[in-house]
Amino acid sequence: MGWEVHEGESSELASRLVLKTCMEHGVDPKGLVIHSDNGGPMKGATLLATMQWLGVIPSFSRPSVSEDNAYAEALFRTLKYRPEYPTKPFESIEDARGWMSRFVAWYNHEHRHSGIRFVTPASRHTGEEVRILANRTRVYEAARERNPLRWSRGIRNWVPIEKVRLNPSKKEGDKLISLNNYRIGEIKNNDSEKIMRQIS
C-alpha angle 120/108/21, rounded to 5°? Predict the structure, then answer.
């Protein structure tokens, strides 16, 4: 997961984050979908031009649909409900970055997610989840064999989830913006309105 903390938002900062994250994680951005809210930085011409240049497909939440990006919403809820979540504003941007760094490390390497069979994002990213879930299956099968009366049904499903999708039941409602008519450098600020009309 890529993240940065800044004193303000801008399309330029968002653009830099996308580039940096793809390079750091060895992600081929072609065909990657970045889903975001309808905030100005995410719709800014600089970010849209960068995504087009990389082959990234931008996707935006539908108007008045707060749960369109369920993963981001779950992340923010987890963040806000951490016991160490600050009750007062950070003293400095360095303090905010330090807190975020610790949270991201915990979230990626310790927090087990129900949507991916209670493995960490890092385990899924590295492929270690296959070994972890196979071991869980063996443990559950052995427990059921030792005490079959305790199990009214089969064991829990520990088969790795092949694909995780954003709102999989709402295929018809999702709209992706198409920038095929624009080349890098051609998107100007006044083009943003034309681009936004494509998704409404």
Answer: 130
pLDDT tens by residue, 42-99: 777 777 888 788 888 887 777 777 666 777 778 888 999 999 999 999 999 999 999 9
For the chain, which residues make up each domain, given as ranges?
Answer: 1-69+167-200
pTM of the model as a whole: 0.70
Report the greatest alpha carbon distance in the chain. Answer: 69
Q: Which of 179, 169, 170, 161 is nearest to 34 (CA)?
A: 179
Q: What share of the chain is helix, strand, coil (3-state, %, to 5)?
A: 50, 5, 45
Structural tokens at position 53: 């240049």
Decide: 13 and 46 in contact? Cβ < 8 Å: no
Residue 22 contacts residue 54 (beta carbons within 8 Å):
yes
